[in-house]
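Quick illustration, no need to memorize.
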Amino acid sequence: SAVYSKQGNFSQALEALDRALQQNPSDPTVKAELHFSKGNQLREMNQLDEAFESYRLAVELKADQSQAWMNMGGIQHIKGNYAAARMYYQRALRLNPGSGLLKENLAKLDRLEKRLTGGA
């Protein structure tokens, strides 16, 4: 039953975010934040395609959201689209060059790709 209550909380949060987005806030930063939060909720619910779409809308409104770029990379990474994942991670790293997590994710991709291409 714990699973259900958690799902319920997520869907309530999603509904609240959708309501806020329907009011179409004029400030693009606010709108980008809402899309980003929505992406996080969807990702928690394992709706990766929908989450990706929300992050994409967020960075369209506000291109300097390194976290959204990183999460887009993470979703591509999970789906096995390593070239796309690398592109998003690198975009995030340009915005946040000090991020250890991003460097770690890129290193993981390097290892995966080496394994795939049969390198050492």
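Residues 69-120 form one domain.
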